[in-house]
Every structure is written in structure tokens, then in C-alpha cells.
Amino acid sequence: MTTLRSAYVALGLIVAMSGGAGATVHHVDWSGGGGYLTIQEAADACAEGDTIEIAPGDYHEQITFSTEKLLIVGAGRNQARVLWDGEGPALKGDGIQTQFTHTIRDLSIVRSPDSEDAIKYPAGAVILENTDIVGDIRGDGRFSAIVDNCTLTDISMTGGLRVSSISGSVVGRASVSGESQYGDHSLTSSGSEYGELSLWFARATLEDDLVKQAFVNSGYGYWSGVEATRTEFDQINSTGEVVLSDCIVWGDLDMTDVNLEYCPAAGLDLTDCVIHGSISLPGETEDDVSCIRLLHNTILGSLWLAVPPPEYYPTCYPWEIRSNIVMGQTEIWLDPSFWPVPITHNDFVSGFSISAPGDSVLANLSVDPLFCDLPAGDLALQSCSPCVGVAHDGGDIGRLGVGCECASPVEPVTWGRLKALFR
Questions:
Q1: In terms of CB atoms within 10 Å, which end of the chain has fewer, N or C?
Q2: Could you tell me which residues come within 8 angstroms of residue 335 by beta carbon, excluding any fewer than 6 positions away?
Q3: Contacts (Cβ under 8 Å, ≥6 apart) of 75
Q4: Strands in 45-135 per DSSP E
């Protein structure tokens, strides 16, 4: 992901500089201090590879770019602002078809109250750096958006977008969607913060992000899903695929509406995660779920899995539920005709009810895992925990391993000993 983004940025800089010695810098100043009073005037005068520099101020205009490979630089976010008050997007491309088109830097772009779009391009790409965007980023054809260190408010990245990258940014509310059921939009993100992230016909790969609310909506899409590493979520609601590694979910992970008829790639794959809420993935018919893999997770709520046989496709990541700590009640039901699924070496603290074919339910515990300090949120294990060294792979059950020495046992206080203290 980092390599992909770096390549995009590098190519974008090459494009912006590709005008060579003949490239021209066009200065825009609404107060008359530059060569142009409006950004549109400068855009009309540009040749391929030119640069537009925008002085501080509010520019109440709609800008149409018909020249490729431009660098547009403002005086700073919230200092140079494009504020469009009419119909249509504030900034749009006309007839632009190259893979890398424009780099926009140090600028604010605010959509009109009468339009959803802040930026709309038919194709090509836009690279946004240190920019504030209020409104949607939309493409009609093959279009990519690369976003670095920006603030995005209430946006929808949709239409013909194929690949988008967001890094180091603050995103208030984002909806990412492709054009069709084939999941033709993918988002990569790193080091960003999302108030809300919704995926429709799209897949997101997240790394080191913060997401308050995540919604994965398959609809009739085959590729809706989220894959995350070292990312924190407040809550996840999904009807598509959820693949998490080394993540934290502070609330519930709810997949109660999964339906394979709509999304055959649906599934749940958690490795080395901490789930502070519950996990629900019930299925009532053969349409309702595909794959589940849970390895070395700590789940503070309950675990509810009801899994009919996966009729829609025969292969997926290996089914297994191993070496997890589940503090709440565990209920797992697998269809009797299902192949044996290893459910082994877990600590189901509050007990479990498991109906599964074969003899694959083995070596599970129902004991206090002896966390270092559960009330304080320290979920590492005491050195004397019954979960230490007994996982399926010889490690520790759960996510965090040993984090403290065994607490000294407290000697029971009897009434006789209590009276002796006051003699």
C-alpha cells in the first residue's frame, strides 16, 4: 500500500514538472496583484505542465480545466478558498483522459449548497495535498484520487473511481462506492482518521487508521469488504467481508445481515485482535455466511455464530476457531453436513454451546484467564494464567500474552481474624 501510494505521488510530481523549461507560472490574485483576477482565467491560459499559483482570498467561481498535467497551488488551506455558489461541481475536468492529470496543493474547495460535488473529473487523476475539501469527489470514467494530509468533510468518492489512496488525513464522513456489483472501486488508507466510513461495491485496505463507524454494504456486490491492520474501530456493521489483523474494535462487530446470495465473498477473518464488544454472525439458511477464521483474539463480549453449509462457492480461507479468549457466552452452530471445523484451545470463560460435526471441538477451557487488570483495561495475562503456553501453536491463548507477574493471593479474612485485629 505504501509503495503504491509513493508511486502515485512520485508520478504526480513528475507530471506536474513535465512542462520542462517552457512551463509557465500563472499568478492569480482577486485583488489585482497578479496576472489574473480569477482562477478560470489562468486555467484558460495554461499549457500542459504549467503551474497556477493562487493568492489568499475567496474565489467565488466554478473552475473547468481542459489542460492536462497542471500543478495548482494555493496560499494555504483556509487562506485560498474556492467557494462555488451555483450548480455543478466547484472544480471539474473537461476532456481530460491521461492517467495522471492535476496536483492540487494548499487550497480549500467548498461545494455549492445546490451541488453534491466539490470535484468531478471524467477520467485521469487528481492528487490532493494539504487541501480541505467539502463535497464529493466523483469520476465518470477511469479516475483515481490520491489524497495526502487533507481534511475531507462529508464526501462521497463514487462514480467511475477505480483506485483511491488517502493518507495522513482527517475525514469526517466518507462514502466509497463503485458503479456496479463488481466492486470496481478500491480504497487504500494509512494514518487517517474517519468519523464514518461506508463502503458500497468497494473494498478498503486500512493501515494504522482510526475509524469511529464502519459500514460494509454488499448490496448485490461481490467484492465489498474491509481489510485492516493496526486499525481501531468504534464499531463495525458489515454485510460483506471483514478481515482484521492486530486491530481493536471498541464496540460490537455485527454481521447479522450477511447474505451470500448478495455477496458470495462475505466472511469474517480475525487474527490477533481485541474486540471489546460482541461478535454476531448468525445464519438461518444456506445463503447467509461463507467463511470464518478466528485466531488468537480476545473478545470481551459474546460470540454467536450460526453457520449453514456454504452452497455458493466451495473454497475460502481455512475454517478454524482457535486460541481465542471469549469472556461472554459462546454459541456456535454448524450444519451437520458441514465438514469438520477445528474449534480448539479456546477459553470460553462464561461457558459454551457448540454443535459441530466430527470430533473437532477439543481442548477448550472455561476458566478465568487472569488478566493483569481487567477493570483498568489491561488485558495482558498474568504469568500464572491458565491460558499461558497452551494455545494450539504452543503460544498463549488470546491476543496480548503475558504482561505481568502473578498477583499475590489474598488470604481470606475470617470473622475471628478480623476481631483479633482490635484486641
A1: C
A2: 307, 308, 309, 357
A3: 54, 55, 56, 106
A4: 51-54, 57-59, 63-65, 70-73, 80-83, 91-93, 102-105, 108-110, 117-121, 124-129, 132-134
Mean pLDDT score of the chain, rounded to an integer?
81
CA distance 326 to 344: 13
Contact between 180 and 200 (Cβ < 8 Å): no
Instruction: Enter the C-alpha cell of residue 309.
Output: 453449509
What ranges do the domains of the chain cover?
1-167
Give the tens place of pLDDT for each residue, 65-109: 989 899 999 999 889 999 988 888 899 888 776 666 889 999 999
- DSSP class of 36: B
pTM: 0.82
What is the rounded distance in angstroms from the CA atom of residue 230 to the CA atom of residue 173? Answer: 21
pLDDT in tens, 272-303: 999 999 998 765 544 445 578 899 999 999 99
| Dist CA 151 CA 110 (whole Å) | 12
**SS3 category, 137:** strand
